[in-house]
Design a protein that fits this description.
The chain is mainly alpha-helical. The protein is about 75% helix and about 0% strand. Helix 4 runs antiparallel to helix 10. This is Tetraspanin.
Amino acid sequence: LSPGAKMGCFTFIKVMMILFNLAIFLGGGALLGVGIWVKVDGESFLNIFGALSSSVLQVVNVAYLLIVIGAILVVIGFLGCYGAQKESKCLLMMFFSVVLIIFIVEVAAAVVALVFTGLAETLLTGLVTPLLKENYGVDPAFTEIWNVTMTEVRCCGLNNYTDFDDSYFYKKYHSYPRQCFGLSPPLAILTHVCLLQGCFPQILEEIRTNAGVAGGVAAGIAALEIAAMAVSMYLYCRLDKK
């Protein structure tokens, strides 16, 4: 290619890099705002998006999850957009490094999820079970999220009803949440109805059922990350020749 064509290609890729990362920055800002909203006024969020309560995200604290993801996207978007606009090698390298780290973490998480499901369950249990014991019945938003999840998925706790043993809720009411029973607690006890199984096995089964869709989305995200790293490195290398 002639020098003019190369410069035109560089300019086009630079503009696309700016626009792409501007969209990431704005999207991250939106997620960050929603996360703060959920944290401050979770009940209103549930009233509007209650239909989403059976998703996997309801197993963890949605507010903190959205805040963390939003903050990461804001940082990535800023580094990519501002680095390309200012033609800063330092910012472009930081962008490349951050995306590479995220890509490696995602690959590692996928390997753990696919190969070491038992380990993933153990780690998740170690994180979520203490939250159930401490916050269920105390934090209204957290309690509502779990109530809706257990009702819609027809499950009890993360692993099973024993997740509520020695919890604040059990100590106060001397019973498990009513969602843990196929019937209301008094009738369930009288008819010897067993407590429902945990939410994790059912969510895991749902993930396996939709593994194709999840895999496609993951592959798409991975492709975007690889493309972003390639473009940032192209711009980084081209700056040496300008």
